[in-house]
Design brief:
single chain, alpha+beta, Extracellular Endonuclease, Chain A, globular
Length: about 325
Amino acid sequence: MMKKISKIALSVSIGASCYLTGTYIEKHRIISELKNVYPDIENYQRYRKYPIFPQVYAATAIAPYNQSANSVVSLGERTRQIMKYGYPSMDPETVKSQEDYVLCYDRRNRVAHWVLEHLTKESIQHNDEVDRSKCNFTVDERIHPYFRSENSDYKKSSYDRGHLAAAGNHRKSQKHCEETFLLSNMAPQVGKGFNRDSWNRLEKYVRKLTKVYPNVYVCTGPLYLPKREADGKSYVKYEVIGANNVAVPTHFFKVVVGETNNGVLEMEAYVMPNEPIPDTTPLTMFQVPPESIERAAGLLLFNKVTKDKFLKINGKQR
């Protein structure tokens, strides 16, 4: 009997040892792979909750999508007849152009899919005639009343009305600054530790890039990312606020393209969790492969330029 117990104990001990060894090796394999993406990965243990895309790899090459071949114009007469009274998924009204930025509005979640900006040293320089304190958060009347967010949605929600196109990026005129306060350009953001701190640091960093590049293009938007629960399954869960059920994104992305005087392009891509982040966390910890953002958001960013045309992505030579 004692021999049998000893054998069982030995088997359990060996099994546990193999499991722990395997876990250790796998953990360090992942960290080793992440070094290719995150230069500051030596601090992985300290910041392990912030690089959120370790499991996503670069997209494989696929045949280019021919949008014109699938457009309504090229569809047959029968298709036009079927869609005579509208085609909900192709509503051009979701794209809204301001004087100094463009956004695509998500009518289901009541926030933008993305916001696109073009920054220069001149467009962001201080202008005494521009007074941010005179700007008011305003309902975007161009959005159908069914799909608008209202100031009342944010009241007592504990969330800030967080800019996607930052007010500090649009200082050329008072009108440009005021247009960033449209609620279509807002998304619920955690205030202390995020909107007023780490996210603000990222916005300031992007503005500083205009000292390096004469042209800086910025695409910003929300993400709703899955999280693995205790049952081993992954779920997409996010809060909604107000009577209009405005979605609270789990994360936000910002993809930046810098263009030099001779046309050389460099890209940086960031994702931040919508939660308080320690001020000591370096921005590089939030750099991710741009392909991971595209896959998560369902977007093709700056897709008129193939990735091989960028000299650097996230500071790394191509």
